[in-house]
Amino acid sequence: MACTTETLERDPAFAAFLSTPVGQDKKGAHVSLLSMLARLDVDPWAEASDLATLPVGAARKRLETLIAGFTDVPAGAPDYDKTVATLLARMPQPAASAPTDSTGTMMPPFGAPIYKIIATVLLFGWIALLAQGY
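The structure corresponding to this sequence follows.
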């Protein structure tokens, strides 16, 4: 898999997850999840993003399948379960979606600066109208 600028500039929230070690290869080199996925010709950042959106059980099953298909790192059953558990613990959780109104338009959270700005403008407008005698 070729490393491009686009590949390197992905969501940094997945950096710790992708740098999690999965074992040592047959030559004794430490292999991270990122390296394992790249060796399997899977886009590590896209896979991490997909895993983060899955329920825990489905993510576990997917990770187990990926690790089982990776023969560069010989792993025993106890290490295998520990590796999957470590990966799941380091997987970032998806961000909560922004609130929307009834039309599906995204709304800023209540108390956001935009509401304070609007309230201030309305208050000064009302004061200006009162000062003019309307």
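The chain has two domains: 9-90, 99-134.
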